Amino acid sequence: MRVKTSYICSECGYKSSKWMGKCPECGEWNTFSEQEETKKEKSSTKPVQLTLSRLKEVESSKSQRLLTGIGEFDRVMGGGIVRDSVTILTSPPGGGKSTLCLMVAYQLANAGYRVLYATGEESDSQIKNRADRILGDIADNIWILADTSMDAVLSAVGEVDPDLIILDSIQTFSLAEFYPARAGNPTQTMECASALVQCAKDKRRQRAALMIGQMNKNDEIAGLRALEHLVDTVLVLEGEGADELRGLLATKNRFGSTGEMGFFAMTEKGLRSIDNPSEYFITKRNRNELVSGSAVTVLREGSRPIVAEVESLVSQSFTPYPSRISETMKKDTLHTLLSILEQRGNVKLYDKNVVVKTTGGLFLKEQAANLAVLMSIVSSVKNRPIPPDWAFIADVGLTGELKRVPAMESRLKELDRLGYAKIIVAKGAAGQVILQHAEVVECRLLQDVMAILTEFYSKMRD
Q1: Cβ atoms 261, 303 nearer than 8 A
Q2: How many domains in the chain?
Q3: What pTM does this model have?
Q4: Is the backbone peptide bond immediately before 180 cis, with ω within 30 degrees of 0?
Q5: Is residue 51 part of a domain?
């Protein structure tokens, strides 16, 4: 056998015969690592035995799902973990990856399933300390393996015969066959992941696999992009270490909806599933408890409508350049909306500081929230409250016209379910939706919405 030395970029997998400071493929610096390739001499080829079937004759697989009992996790997965699936979970450091995996292991073990938790980052005592803190009583059918050898993991699978395999994290494991490539090397990571996929999808004994993937500085899974193509589901746990709110997003799911979002609250006892986000992202007030600067809208996270509260604070500026602050929406979007409000709504803000946020820290990704943002600012400028049972769902164009947004039926029905009395939308947006409690008011222009508020305020004075 012949030994050849090559250099592989750890970011994109580009291969070179010599070391280079900068990768010509992805442009990253100092990412090349040395790897020895062993080439076997050519041997006589043997005929390959093929097993062909007509597609119409193949039996459809009705894979059983493993329900964890964690409402938001099961929903993002499409109704639980498919028995022969491989899922990768990533997040920034301290985001709660290991905590969520340990909770999944605990719930499935209590349901009677066998779980193997293999960790290459922490010792078994560290995992036990976390389990004692967030779980309490631990079921007998959770096995722990603290090792960085993927060969040891596969041997443990044969001994324990688990229903779920957890790897924490895939970048810390290596196969002896590909020595001297170190753990974290693109080749080792891909080969370890491939070995896990083959183990999970073995027709003789199907298993579910959940592996943690480290995140690089670009907020992507470390290693080759091919790793995401190899697995069935890619989950991203969003949220910084100091934030209570965590969002679980499915960026890929072969067995469910892509783009589905679940919400968790990070507590001392681990991640708590927020099963009713519409109540989490609004402030509960009494009917007679009115505050200025607050407006309600409905956002879509995946396939689910979520009621969100937008809060604004407008104050007098004593500097040449007033502040425009928002941590929950793009700053350019805020500047655009303020320009529309000044020009089309005749609300002067050139000498005002404007601060916009949402209750619970929910990021305003959709244009459906734009009308609610403007109305919360108007309420703050006038120091007049908007009724807490009113809601606004529309985009606002540069002309001041209200624009329709998708999925209006589900948004309206969610507000109707929660008991909202008046919903203001764009002209023709409501369609033929029948609501039991809420009144839908269609407006064409931003001025029409402001006129409704002015009429309400005049009635309050009377």
Answers
A1: no
A2: 3
A3: 0.79
A4: yes
A5: no
Q: Are 103 and 149 members of one domain?
A: yes
Say if CB 82 and CB 65 are below 8 A apart: yes
Q: Give yes or no: residues 79 and 161 share one domain.
A: yes
Q: Do 337 and 212 fall into the same domain? A: no
Residues 14 and 110 in one domain: no
Residue for token digits 């080439």?
39
DSSP code of residue 442: E
Domain containing residue 31:
2-39
Determine which helix (DSSP H) or strand (DSSP E) holds 129, and give its type and residue range. helix 124-134
Q: Is residue 76 part of a domain?
A: yes
Q: What is the pLDDT of residues 275-327, one digit of tens each?
A: 888 888 998 877 677 899 999 999 998 888 999 999 999 999 999 899 999 98
- 338 vs 250: CA distance, rounded Å: 33
Question: Percent helix, strand, coil in the chain (nearest 5)?
Answer: 30, 30, 40
Please tell me whether residues 254 and 345 are part of one structural domain. no
Q: Which of 261, 254, 259 is nearest to 63 (CA)?
A: 254
DSSP 73-110: HHHHTTSSEETT-EEEEE-STTSSHHHHHHHHHHHHHH
Residue the block writes with tokens 């722990």: 144
The enclosing domain of 187 has a CATH number of: 3.40.50.300
The Cα 117–Cα 380 span in angstroms is 52
What phi and psi values does residue 189 have, to the nearest 5 degrees?
A: -60, -45
Token pair of 188, please?
């080792």
Q: Where are the beta strands (DSSP E) in 92-168?
A: 115-119, 142-146, 164-168
Does a structural domain hold residue 52? no
293 shares its domain with 329: yes
pLDDT band with cut points at 50, 70 and 90 for residue 1: very low
**Stretch (H or E) spanning 459:** helix 446-461
Asked whether 347 and 384 are in contact (CB, 8 A), the reply is: no
In a domain, 58, yes or no: no
- Determine what percent of the chain is predicted with pLDDT higher than 70: 94
Condensed to tens digits (0 to 9), the pLDDT of residues 7-18 reads 888 777 778 888
Asked if residue 236 and residue 214 are part of one domain, the reply reads yes
Q: List, for residues 164-202, the tens digit of each pLDDT value.
A: 999 998 999 999 888 777 888 888 889 999 999 999 999
